[in-house]
Structure formats: C-alpha cells, structure tokens
Amino acid sequence: MAARTIVDAIKANPEFVLGVATGSTPIKVYAEIAKLVKAENVDVSKVKAFALDEYVGISKDHPESYYQVIKVNVTDQIGLRPENVNTPSPDIKTVATAGADYEAKIKAAGGVDLQILGIGRDGHVGFNEPGSSLASSTRIKTLTQETLEDNARFFDSIDDVPKHCITQGIGTILRAKHLLLLAFGESKAEAIAGALEGAVTSSLPGSAVQLHPHVTAIVDPAAGSKLKNLEYYKWVYENKPSWDAI
Ligand code: PGA
User: Fold this and answer.
1) What is the pLDDT of residues 201-222, one digit of tens each?
2) Is 122 a catalytic residue?
3) Which helix (H) or strand (E) holds 139?
C-alpha cells in the first residue's frame, strides 16, 4: 500500500521529492517500489530523495552509515540517480553547519513531497529523541541508551554505535507535504498509540504528526494493538471515498 501510494505519486509528478527513512521498517517498501518501478516502467530519473538522518563521525563507506544504507536500499535498488539522493554529512569537521546546509538543500529542491517515517520504541521520529523541540530543524542530537541498544544489532557491539547523529528536526519533518508513518510489531504498539492518540508532547516526538494536515499511518495488527479508536479507523478505511482521499 505504501509503495503503491509512492509510485502513483511519482507517476503524477516525475520530479517528486521523496523523504526516506532508514531502520528495518521501510526496507520492504523500498523493494516493492523497485518492483513496481520496473514492472510499470516508471521514469525515476528526476526523482530526488532526502534521508532523515545520519550518524556523526562515521565514514560514508561504513556499511552501516545511512549514506550506504540508503545507497543500497533506495538509490541502487530503485534506480535513482546518485546525484539526486541526499543524506546529511557525517563529517565531524562540518557538523556545526551541516544542519543549515541540509535545510537549504531541501528548500532548493522545493521541499519534501512525501516523508516516510518509522518510529522508535521511545517515540522518536528521525533521530529526534524525547525532549526534541517540536519546531526543531536539522541539527546534531545525542542518541538515547534505548536507541543505542536497538541499533547495536547493526554493529559488532553497542560500543561501536555512534552516540551522535545529525537529524532532520521535527519542524523539518512537519514541512513535508505528506507524512507516511509505518510501524510493524508489538514493540511499537505503545509508541504508535502515544503518537496517534496521546497528548502532543516533545516527550514523544512522533506525536508531532498530529500537527500535520496530511498523515497516513500504516500499522500491522500488533503495532496497532494499543490504539483506542482502532474500530473507528477500520470503519474510516472501509468507507473511504477514494484512494485520492488518503
Ligand atoms: P526500525 O527503527 O525501523 O529499525 O524499527 C525505527 C526508528 O528507530 O525510527
């Protein structure tokens, strides 16, 4: 469903600007987009992509740098032009200006048309950990212990996970024209319920999606298991006027 939404949007606008996320959640979506693009012969030569975040101080060549993760899963797999794909700079020497540079690049591209979002168990979106300003722009952040533990699976040990990152801010994310929030599995149930139905609070950065006028959330039954209004959401889905309305 997510891939269909994105591929149809690219067909309607070949200069589409796609906001991409790392983590395990969207991996199958990228594979499905690649399949649809190939099967339907979709022109992606002008599509631009912007990643949400990057570790600070990691080499771009490191297989777990988000530059590489996006290159493998998005750029190469979908067939985007490498010069059209952007990730924040991991270079420690330019970290003070990297945020403003990245914001300027997004602005020059005309803004993000659709931003794919995963959510952390602690409610983070991008790497905006609890306490992040809801108006924040791209900047350096320090990861929580929970995020370091979650991401240790990608590294040899938890000590190898960089503690700092550069991430689009919540304000940046809210400037995208459409947010597509994805969550799968029981470990995300609490964060999804808080993000979609709890109070809007910097303590659960994902709750900022409630401030956005156009959000689509796709969750599996486990991730949606703590939603109070689940029956109503199903009713809305079953009675949707058309695909254009989501
Ligand atoms: P995951 O991470 O997709 O690997 O669960 C999501 C996130 O931390 O934002």
Assistant:
1) 999 999 999 999 999 999 999 9
2) yes
3) strand 139-142
